[in-house]
Amino acid sequence: MPATASVYQLNIHSEKDDALTINGLEAMNVRCEDIPTARTLIRFPSQGEIGAAGLLLDLDSRPKTPINTDHDAPDAGKSYFSRHGIAISGTQSPGLVRLEVATGMARCTFNLRARYTHTDTELHSTVITNGGQPFVAESIPRCPEQEIIFSIPDGSFVDCSQRWVSGCSEFWK
User: Fold this and answer.
1) Model-level pTM greater than 0.70?
2) Are residues 145 and 41 in contact, defined by beta-carbon separation less than 8 angstroms?
3) How far, in Å, CA of 71 to CA of 7, rounded?
4) Residue 117: CB partners within 8 Å, gap ≥ 6?
5) 158/165 Cα distance (integer angstroms)
6) Burial degree of 94 (CB within 10 A; 0-12, 13-18, 19+)
């Protein structure tokens, strides 16, 4: 499993008046390239948590369906939708989802296919995009030319090549 992930906070809305339940998500139209896209890596420490369904989608695996990232759940690390769904209450309440997307490739683009049911109990599907564009997942360069850590307490940037700093890659030690 790649060590880093691109993170999206999805607010999924429905145009239907009735509530619906998303009971499946999968990556589709996945296109990856292994051309390095960055020469400088800037790391920012964690900025806290959000109370949302936590899903991890590994674009390098088959099938390309998310797993549950809730470490306290009995199904942690297993298919999220084997025991869960995402409820959306009509046009009023969005379904909030924290989606982490990992890849070992330099850059991947993809869309999501959501399977859902609503009052008619039939299975439907729709494609979810990132504002009309594909989602993007990038991995960090294996040996960047420069790595910088942002320091929260004083708002400064520290160059990892000048001295070892907690959070810098093993590459710079």
Assistant:
1) yes
2) no
3) 17
4) 20, 21, 23, 123, 124
5) 8
6) middle
The closest of 101, 127, 110, 135 to 22, measured between CA atoms, is 127
CA distance 97 to 90: 16
Report the relative pairing of strands 40-43 and 146-150 from DSSP bridges: parallel
Q: What is the percentage of the chain residues whose pLDDT exceeds 70?
A: 77
How far is it, in rounded angstroms, from Cα 88 to Cα 105? 33
Q: What is the pLDDT of residues 99-137, one digit of tens each?
A: 889 888 888 999 999 999 887 778 899 999 999 999 999
Beta bridge partners of 146: 40
Token pair recorded at residue 129: 């995009």
Contact 57, 136 (CB under 8 A): no
> Which structure tokens are listed for 51?
């109370």
Q: Is-contact 65 82, C-beta < 8 A?
A: no
Lowest mean per-residue pLDDT among 62-71, 152-161, 162-171: 162-171
Beta bridge partners of 95: 12
pLDDT at residue 1 is higher than 50? no
Q: What is the pLDDT of residue 79?
A: 87
